[in-house]
What we know:
This protein is mainly α. The chain has helices at 3-35, 42-68, 77-80, 86-132, 135-147. The two termini are 46 Å apart.
Amino acid sequence: MDRALSEEFVDFLSRYLVLFQEFFALETQKYQDISQGQIDKLNDHVKAEEVFMLRSKGMEAERERLMQRTQASVSTFRELLPHFDPDIRQQAEELFDDFSAVIIELKEMNLRCNYLTELRLRRVDAALKKMKKQPELQKKYDAKAREELNSAGFISKKV
């Protein structure tokens, strides 16, 4: 691979790394909010995640265009690293290692968020089942929810 294309890959990988570092920070904040019971902030996290997904799709399309320009028949960055210009290879390997580490941390944080969210949802589900068995509680909370002007019902099930 020539030097110019190697530099384009390094620039791309650097921007890709920044994108996933931002997403990791978002997931970390989401985990903290869930663990502190601040579920009112989840909607904002979901919107930010949707933005991230759109940005990552654009970056992935750019990655595919760059990969097509290489003469090597490889499909991953790891396989492409040996083909980099020798003067840039070290920088590319370091960026790739950083990127790989962020992806591993992101996956772990995502598993934590999913697990904690599942626990919280089970508690809500148990509370709803308990309330259904006690009609006096259901009437009380339904009436209170109807008093709220912006309320969509007793409990929003949007996740």
